[in-house]
User: What shape does this take?
Amino acid sequence: PKPGELPGSAVSGYNAGMKIFPRIFLKAGEEREQTGADNEIWSFGEEAYAILRRYVGIREKLRAYTRALMHEAHTTGAPVIRALFYEFPADSRAWEARESYLYGSDLLVAPVCYEHAVSRSVYLPAGADWLELATGKTLAGGADYTVDAPLGSIPVFQRIGGKYAALLPAGLME
Assistant: This one.
């Protein structure tokens, strides 16, 4: 066969001898466009693009941490996204938290849940100290804090001395 061609029978809807074009199929079987769909990060305007691009970078910085969490989930069954009480079962307030979650054992995420909000209250579980990643401030667990949450900023807190601390780079949220 020539470069870019496959011998044999039909592959992904193409007969032998035809050029190979990567095809993406949805679960229902219909073919999807490969790019340019209205869900690309540049599809939402310049302001949103800058925010989304920053978070794509943060996701890349979290790659080693995420891989460790996936390994832990595979070997122990521990969930990757956790309610606060999963890591802090003795803290009764952790059982009441409804608008924040843990990404693994070491990152507490407190998304903004209300339109036009520019700050929010967050409870940090007792039994750990926390680093507010936006400011670098160390905060004691077992208390409520009001934190800034302007558009484009999700409050995230790192558990100090956490299990995977070595996998979380300095400047994570930059």
